[in-house]
Amino acid sequence: MRKPYKLIFEKHCIDRRAADLPALDVPKMDGLVPQACLGEALPLPSLSEMDLVRHYTGLSRRNFGVDNGSYPLGSCTMKYNPKLNEELTAHFNDLHPLLDDDALSAAYELQFALDRALCAVCGMDKFTLQPAAGAHGELTGLMVMRSYHNMRQDFLRAEMLIPDAAHGTNPASATMAGFKAVELKSLPDGGVDVEALKQAVSEKTAGLMLTNPNTLGLFEKNILEITQIVHDAGGLVYYDGANINAIMGKARPGDMGFDVMHVNLHKSFGTPHGGGGPGAGPVGVKKELIPFLPAPLIMKKNGRARPDYDRPLSIGRVKAFNGNFGVLVKAYAYILSLGADGLREASEAAVLNANYLRHYLKDVYELPYDGLCMHEFVLTPGALNEQGIHNVDIAKALIDYGYHPPTISFPLIVREAMMFEPTETESREDLDGLIYALRQIAETAKTDPDSLRSAPLTTPVGRPDETRAARNPIVIAPLSSSDRL
């Protein structure tokens, strides 16, 4: 039975107060514009301090995060982030971005050092730290690619090749950057169809956007051939760095033939994310593309890191001031804390955890792409569909076991996909608990499928109509006249 939930306005009691304030002793000011004054008192609820604290504490406990439990949201890399990194950002709290360069010297040095570290991890020659998110990084990188082709007066190159297993932001970013998105079909094994790629490239090809490992959690076997085909056709190759948590310290996009890439610092490099932010999506390029990066670019001048505004071929600024600077501080602290060996071990553990989870679930769910995966993998309900159970039922039921649901219905090439990414920070005990929950759900699907179709049963809100909720959200509580204050 669901516990009744009341809004704070419904808890209003006229006889209760959280605090008694003294009478106003500020002298009345003349000359105030009447329209600037409240015509009547705000209808704020009246509660005791205890009721107030319990209300907001209860709300905070309903907000699930990685500090509460496992968050195997595929493709999002929702891993635990060290709290030390949060504390280190406080050292820069007093730096206002409009201070002069000397006052911002430490911030510039940190940015330059982070740039060098990301280049070492990714095999690139220079990074801009301005972009505020992964999709923002995609748009920035694609604008760099477009400027490169335009500088060469190669104006016919207007097509961006994108595999059907790509992240949904890829075609959107390509379109915003002025390219025509051209879909490439995947092979039955989930990889890029090399023969189809050979047929697709032409003098119109501006580039290829690719995630490696891809959204199925599979590493492209023919990656060097793929990038060479695009280069031979005169195009550039863009690396979507959303899945770099699988290969840090093991492989570098720059060594695979990629010319441009972005990195989601809020996924792989120590910043909590979700709910729309914060994020950072630095873009790295090979040396031929450095002139086109956003201005200013942090460079070394006379031994000191300083912003360089003298960049005539730059695409221009894409983010105010120094980007999401707090995220940059956390990422640099994360890299320094782990070092090269630690980053490599993080990726190894992420891949190990994903394969452990995959192995103990493949006998109760359908595994559309069998074999070793990288950091994530995709399951489907398989035979559970015969009981009328769909991926959304399994995802909702996981909530009752205390786990965040996986990504569902993505990638689009897998019907009823459930994408799991356990990350490296989950212990074996945590993984075993998730395995137990998913196996129990599969058993319940056979014996009591109706209960799954009603899940979750332990939350204040059960199973809303998600389509209507997205299109017609109710953001104001419908209070009756008796409830009004």
Shape: globular
Alpha carbon gap, first and last residue: 30 Å
Helix content: 25-40%
Examine the coordinates and then state which fold CATH places here, giving the name of the CATH topology of the domain at 83-338. Answer: Aspartate Aminotransferase, domain 2
Q: Architecture of the domain at 83-338, CATH level 2? A: 3-Layer(aba) Sandwich
CATH class of the domain at 83-338: Alpha Beta
Briefly, what is this?
By secondary structure, the protein is α/β, with parallel strands linked by helices.
Set out the fold topology.
Elements: H1 49-62, H2 83-88, H3 105-122, E1 126-128, H4 134-151, E2 159-163, H5 169-176, E3 180-184, H6 194-200, E4 205-210, H7 223-232, E5 236-241, H8 253-256, E6 260-263, H9 265-268, E7 283-285, E8 297-301, E9 304-308, H10 325-359, E10 377-379, H11 391-400, E11 407-408, E12 418-420, H12 428-447, H13 449-453, H14 466-471
Parallel strand pairs: 2-3, 2-4, 4-5, 5-6
Antiparallel strand pairs: 1-7, 6-7, 8-9, 10-12, 11-12
Helix pairs in contact: 3-10, 4-5
